[in-house]
Amino acid sequence: MTVSTGAEPRRRRAAAPPPRRAGAGRKRSKKALWNTLGILVFVVMGFPVYWMVNTALKKQDEWQNYTPHFVPEHPTLQNFTHAFQADNFLISLRNSFVITLGAVLISLVVGFFGALAIARFSFAGKKAVIFTVLLVQMVPLVVLVIPVTQTMQDLNLNDTLTGIVITYLVFTVPYTVWTLRGFISNVPRELDEAALVDGCSRWQTFTRIILPLTGPGLVATS
């Protein structure tokens, strides 16, 4: 009886591995599902880019055809040649570069310091500022078109690069402030205090602690 009693628990222990295999199978199925979803998202997001390049490499009679072709039958660079030879192409390219660079840089600088002030300092009207930033993002852009246009006209900034940059800043600065506020708030305040105790000034704390740690947030926001 002693031998048979000791053998039964051993048989029960030996039967334990199957649940592990079932768990491993679930993990593989879950991984395959996520991989499939990732590929699907990549295809959906990348297809417009592919179709744009595909159309650019087609001849005029080919891309005007109602029957779509996913691969150009006779690839050509003729469309790029016409674009570069256009009279206003270089001017348009320069204007786009100036507007994009100006809007991004100014928005990042102004938005970052605004987010830093909200996340790190206490001042009168802080809640009102946060509410205003959030409110501007909730307002539909169409509602702001007429006021912004009227303001640009009053300032004689219509049809100017400066006016376009300012118009972009109206929409991008609140978004930048709100986004970077979250990144800065995730940086522990203890790091700031430790840097100040070690002899760093406020500016050194900003450049050596906060700015490097929020670098990914700056890249994502820009």
Name given to the CATH homologous superfamily of the largest domain:
MetI-like
CATH architecture of the largest domain: Orthogonal Bundle
Uncertain ranges: none
Give the class from helix and strand content and strand pairing: mainly alpha
Judging from the principal axes of the Cα atoms, what is the shape?
extended
Alpha-carbon distance between the two ends: 76 Å
- Report the sheet with the most strands, covering strand number, pairing sense and barrel closure: none
CATH class descriptor of the largest domain: Mainly Alpha
Average pLDDT taken over every residue: 83
* CA gyration radius, whole angstroms: 29 Å
| N-to-C series of helices and strands | HHHHHHHHHHH
Number of helix segments? 11
Assign a percent range to the helix content: over 70%
CATH topology of the largest domain, by name, is MetI-like fold
Strand content: under 5%
What is the number of domains?
Answer: 2
Protein architecture, described:
It is a single chain. It is built from eleven helices and no strands. Helix 5 runs parallel beside helix 8, helix 6 packs across helix 8 and helix 9 runs antiparallel to helix 10. The N and C termini lie far apart (76 Å). The chain is extended, with a radius of gyration of 29 Å. It folds into two domains: 62 residues; 136 residues, MetI-like (MetI-like fold). It is an all-alpha fold.
